[in-house]
Specification:
Helix content: 25-40%
Shape: elongated
Strand content: 15-25%
Number of strands: 5
Structural class: alpha/beta
Radius of gyration: 38 Å
Oligomer: single chain
Distance between the termini: 73 Å
Strand order of the largest sheet: 3-2-1-4-5
Number of helices: 12
Amino acid sequence: MIPEAREVHLSRKDRKVLEACCRSPVTLQRDLKRARIVLLAADGRSTRSIAKEVGVQPRIVSLWRHRYADHGLEGLQDKPRPGKQPIYTKTTDKRILKLLDKPPPQGFARWTGPLLAEALGDVDVQYVWRFLRSHKIDLVARKSWCESNDPNFTAKAADVVGLYVAPPAKAIVLCVDEKPSIQALERAQGYLKLPSGRALTGQSHDYKRHGTTTLFAALEVATGKIIATHSKRRRRVEFLDFMNSVTAAFPNRKLHVILDNLNTHKKNEDWLKAHPNVQFHFTPTSASWLNKVEVWFSILQGQSLSGTSFTSLKQLQEHIDAYVNAYNDRAEPFVWTKKKVRQRRFKGRRITQL
């Protein structure tokens, strides 16, 4: 049953607003119909005739007549709806974060979405994943860090960085280190044709070992060029033999050699006395990243060694030598850009030993 029609009286201001709403091409259909209902009602039209002209049910016309008569233009707006109550709240989020602070179940290395949902008991795993994504929490990625406990960190770092930024006049600055136990692995490589006709390139998981080599390398800071030799082992005698070849490459020149704290690099006073033009500079403890030759070792691994196969140790050594020669043809110095190198401990960190 349709309620008794309410009389609608429009002010000039309201009429202008409703007529403009009807003329506007961007007005939503629901707002257009409501405006037309009120305008026709103000002209004295009956509820049924308005419903027929606008194309709605008579009860809809009666609704908006009453809403405008009681509340004016504000009555034509949708009332806020409560909607469905959320299943999970901020309390659920706090429970997930609290659980992440605890060690994973016995036998597991880390938490996963299903493990978290199972431990919570009343939280769906899909919500767990959504919560982790929204907070940018990656359960797989791991950050690593290394803090130097060297009491002379500042002095040693300043010494090394000073050689990079302002090397002594008429002197050669070299970064020296070893890359030990590079394996000569023989892997089956080539193309694999699938039954679908698609061809894949790659290598097999099985391999054959043909020995290892230790690469001694010296990076000339000013030019970026590399001096490298191979050795079976990385003892003190091999290190000093390599240093003899380095000094022979720069006769009658003052050499400043940057080294890490490997025991074979230290306690070589007799050799240094025999080579007064050579001075050793050591990076702080647990700060070998200050040695630029480590950057070159990373380039060597990525551009020359990864994904290759060797049938003999000699082939591996020739392969590395060829890469060193090619690298030296286009070598450029590494530019030191970090403005400050300081020893700073992490504040408020939590380290849990499981």
